[in-house]
Amino acid sequence: MSHSYCSNLLFALRLCYPHLGNSSCRRIMYSHSVSVLLHIILSSISVLTVTLNLLVIISISHFKKLHTPTNFLLLSLAVSDFSVGFVIVFLIFLIDGCWFLGADWCVFYVALSLVSTAASVGTVVLISVDRYVAVCDPMHYQTKVTANRAKICIVLCWLCSTVFHTVMLKDNIEHPGGFDSCAGGCTIYLPPLAGVIDLIFSFIIPISVIVILYVRVFMVAVSQARAMRSHVTAVTLQSSQKVNRSELKAARALGVVVVVFLIFLTPSFIVTLLAGFAAMSVSTFFAVLCLYYFNSLLNPVIYAFMYPWFRKCVKCVLSLQILKSGSSEANILEHLLTCFF
Fold this sequence. Notes:
transmembrane helix; mainly alpha; Rhopdopsin 7-helix transmembrane proteins; membrane; globular; 2 domains; trace-amine receptor activity
């Protein structure tokens, strides 16, 4: 009798909704220490991701001197990373494989994840194009890349991402929870064709464009560096113009962002692709998902190391100097003082 009771109790503990019996989804059982560690790690990543990217958003939005095409692209990337910070909150609820927030929130969680991911990929492509024009065609950069054009491209990037994934999730939006095989699940149905299209337009094409453009930028940067070492004052490139040193420095800084982005993005798409040919464990999906989301935390950290203006902005935001009258007009790029008042 005692053995039967223990077996039933153990079975109940493995269910998301014990009172529903076999109609309930099963939990992923972790040891207490592993469960606590996962919650601490994901919670920390979520809080830091939201906080650091919020600092980027406030800095670029507030200081008018930072309203450049390149910084608008960084702002878009920060918004997508900021959204990922909230996605991680939802991911915490799925650590044990049980979803208790309802079908509507499940669809919202997946939609926010897909839209923000696609928008970040699109923004990185735009950053690559921006650096390509700045380094490889510097004479026409000011006319080709303007603040208004950057804004239009960013809006189109987010709009296309939202529309495409709304269409892709159409069945789930119309019938939330309709594809769950058990209570406590968060199952999303994606048409096979939509998955292929998403792979092509969210990974294969963008990654190809990013790699091709940055290889070209790297080649020009190397040529410029050699010329500087040789004390050559004018270097003939494809554009027949000398590349501005600040543009090269920005290209290197953003190059770090792009490389880190590719390193963290690629595994998730590889696993997604392989899932169509072989069964993948939940832990594998969970691991690559966390790896990709961790990239959203790294971006503002990279800015802190690469951009003195960002460090200065953070000091001014945290010290509440931005609340002073006229602070938005301050020349944050000049002299890089501790603060502007």
